[in-house]
Every structure is written in C-alpha cells, then in structure tokens.
Write the structure tokens for this entry.
Amino acid sequence: MKILTAAQTRQLDQATMQEQGLLSTELMERAATAFVQWFTGRFTPTEAGEILLLCGPGNNGGDGLSAARLLQRAGYRLRVALLPADKQSADWQHNRRLLPNSVAVAGIEPGRLPKIAVDSLVIDALFGTGLSRPLTGLAAKVVQHLNQARARVIAIDLPSGLFADAPQPANSAVVQAQHTVSFGLPKLAFLLPQNAAFVGEWEVKDIGLSEAFIAATATPWHYTDAAAVAGQLPPRPKFSHKGTFGHALLLAGSRGKMGAAVLTAGACLRGGVGLLTAHIPGCGYDIFQISQPEAMCLTDKQADFISELPELQPYQAVGIGPGLSQDPASLAVLRQLLKAAAQPLKKTGHLLPLIIDADALNLLSSHRALLKQLPENAILTPHPKEFERLTEPARDDYHRLELLREFATQHRCLVVLKGAYTCLATPDGALHFNSTGNAGMATGGSGDVLTGVLLALRAHAQLPAFEAARLGVYAHGRAGDLAAAQTGQAGLVAGDIVRHIGPALAEV
Ligand SMILES: NC(=O)C1=CN([C@@H]2O[C@H](COP(=O)(O)OP(=O)(O)OC[C@H]3O[C@@H](n4cnc5c(N)ncnc54)[C@H](OP(=O)(O)O)[C@@H]3O)[C@@H](O)[C@H]2O)[C@H](O)CC1
Ligand SMILES: [K+]
C-alpha cells in the first residue's frame, strides 16, 4: 500500500471525483459514512452519552457535520461546537444546511470554550490534511482545553494540529486522540513513535479512492500489509530436496550470549532453509548441538568468541552478528567476510547475500571505513540506537527517516530499522513500513529471530533481496502476533516467535 503526502491526497480526491463522476459532497458522504460505521461498531448510543463534535472550517469539519447528521439519525445524542473562521468550505456549508435543528450547534468563543466532562466522547473534526501551519490562537486554545479534559477523543482523518507528512514545531498544539479513523491510505505521521500520543490507535477506512491515480503516483513511502507479501514465498516443489532451499552459514554467539546463536538458528530453520551451518565459539558446542539438532555446527579455535571465517564456498547466504562480541578477532572475521563477499560467487555469478546484525553492526560503526566494502544488497538490521551509531543522532523521527534513506542509497544496501513499524529502506530510496508485530516483541532475542528468518529467505535462490527482506520482516511480526495471541504480550519471549514462524509463513 502506498503512503501519499497531504498534497497528493488532495489530488487523489480530485482524481477520484473525475474518474467516478462524483460530486465532492458525495465523496465527503462516503468518508462520513465510513467514519460512522466505525463509530457505531465501537459505541452504542448509551455508551457514547452526549457526544461533543468539534468542527473546523474546512472539509475535515464538513466530514464532521455529515457524520453528526448520520449519528443523530442512528440515535446518538450530539452537540456541535464550531470553530469561527473567515470562510468555510463549500462542502462544509452544504452539510451545515443538512444538519437538523434538533442537533445543538454553538460557536466557540475565546472566553467560552465548550464544556468537556472527563471520559465523555469527543469527535475531533477541526483540521485534517488541509492543515497549512501550526495551530495558534483560538484553535490552539481549544486543542489544549480538549487535551486537558481527559475525554475519550476520536479524530476524523488526522488528530487536529498534526501534519500528515512532516514534523510540527516542538510544543505545537495537537489533539491527543485515543483513536484516529482515517480515509483511503495510511498517513506517514501515524507510523512514527513521536506521534503515538496524538494518533492513538488508528485505522484506515476504504472510501473507494481512485486506484489508477494511486498506482500512477510516485512516493518513497509504502506500507507492507498482507496483500503486499501474498504469494511471495516460493512454493516447495514436490521433487525438491534440502539443497533446493539453500545452505546458510551463521556466524554468531560468544560466551554468555550463545542464546542469540540458538535463537537465530532456530528462526532460520523455521524460515525454511534447506541446510544451516553455524560457526560458533568452542564454549557453545554442547549448548548449540543440544538445542538445535537440525543444524550443523563448526567450532572456532577460540573458546569465547569467533576468530576464524570458515570456507564460504558451500553457502548461499551468510548471517553475522547475533551475540558475536566485539572482540578484535571477531572484527577480523567481519573484515574477511566483507572482502570475500565483494567477489561474485563462482556458481551463480551473484554476490553472496549477507545479513548483518547486532555486534557486527557495532563493529561497522566503530570502523566506518568498512561500510564502503558492504556488498550490494547486504541487509543490515539495526534498532534505532545501532542505526544512529552507524550514522549520526537524529533530531526527530522524520530526520531519522532521511538518514535511513541516505544510508541505504549511499551504501547500496537494505536497512531494516527495527521498531513498532519496522522500516525497510532499499538502495533506490524507498521506505517500506511493516504492519505486523506488537509491543510484546520488545524483548531480548526478538531481533536475533528476525536475522534468522532473513537468513533463511536470502539463502533461497529464488527470492531477490528486497522481496526476501520485506517478507521476512512481515512474517517475523506476524509470528509475534500469533505468539502473543497465546502468551499475551507481557509473557512473550523470543522462542515463542520462533515457534510461530512456520504458521506465519504458511499464511502468506
Ligand atoms: N480522500 C480523503 O481523504 C477525503 C478527505 N476529506 C476530508 O477533507 C479533509 C481535508 O479538507 P481540507 O478542506 O483540505 O482541509 P482541513 O479541513 O484540514 O482544513 C482546511 C481549512 O483550515 C484552514 N487552516 C489550515 N491550517 C490552519 C491553521 N493552522 N489555523 C487555522 N486555520 C487553518 C485552511 O485555511 P488556509 O488559510 O490554510 O487556506 C482551510 O480553511 C481531510 O482531512 C478529510 O477529513 C473529504 O471529506 C473526502 C475525501
Ligand atoms: K481531525
């Protein structure tokens, strides 16, 4: 699914009306109907009590007025508070005229802000994608008044005061909604941690916007939903054998961190790899062989960390980093690996696919000259702190996305920035936000599991780097969701994610 800017969203409205021969009021009615369907599915008239609708002067306010009429007809009690403005949009005026007199309407005045009881329901239809500057004056005052009231706030399309696609200055007035019900496509703002307190839980309702316009519109931002990865996992042909699905090499583990190697290996096996060999320090031999009997195991001459790079010829993909340690000997292994991976494989003529995680990333940050040696399409899987060590501290989440795009394009690699909406950056400058996963996955070892899944998918000759990375990230999150359905989020551990990778991949 694409994510568009606010300006592109306005063009999308126009294109939809032209394509479908719709009046703008008809499109507004679709939006209001979608909102009301969501609302009535959530709250009965009794639960809702007297709803306050805060209404701005543009089409977001127009959506609100239309929704007020539909809600009243469905038996809800409402009062509407209008933000004064020099002019209101034509569709606003149309819906104002249609609002029955039985709905109480009052203008907001500086000295007379609407009364808002604790826990009462408020619908925020002040501003949406047409916000052109931060809120000031009376609008800002209304928003602050609302945020202080501790009401249950539901925003139409966007929490008012929030830009859809850009940061707002610090301390701007922005509505803190519990729910945001948006139309058509997700907004970039929904996916960034800094906006979580404003957006709350969000949903996007389909209002039949022009598919042709969306397909023809260029954007760097994408949202990976089930449809994006459907059918992407290559089938397992009847006459396949373990060689068909690749042989992966994992370089992981050190004293006290053998669990990372075990989890990564487990995830790689559940990710469908044909064969897995792990190269681990001597101290981990029993631990690893007992916990992962399906994998083969090479032990390093060092007991506590890895100091040797095995012969790479048998492998179709290499993963390095989980639990690795940052010992200089392990740095030397990383150097050798990058050097070896710079030459195309004799068998296929392709570069050896690499997955680089955890301590291998930290080694890259402390030896940045090595970044120049990353083979094209290597996959790096940093969390935000690891990413900032590779680049620079980000001013905010939008700046971090800029840094992410720059990094992936400059180094011709794929970067999986882990988080609530894990963001995959590709060498062509695209950013793909993942839709699966939950806060239960913020637990030790979860990242190791991701590396294992990615390693399995990269070892598979039929999956190009981008498709493998996007599918791996999606399946990892989905496995976490399936696991959390059984364990609850608090009870979730990384091993639970491993156990659900099979079912998650089977779904796609
Ligand atoms: N496809 C869809 O998603 C549909 C969306 N709909 C709804 O329409 C809004 C967008 O409506 P629009 O009229 O473009 O914009 P807003 O309602 O958000 O606000 C525009 C008015 O607000 C003024 N404005 C802007 N910023 C400020 C500010 N900081 N302070 C005060 N006033 C402000 C603006 O005035 P200008 O001076 O900037 O011209 C306008 O008067 C979208 O979010 C959906 O809710 C459609 O209903 C259907 C399809
Ligand atoms: K709004």
Q: What stands out?
A: The radius of gyration is 26 Å. The first helix runs from residue 6 to 20. The longest strand covers residues 50-55.
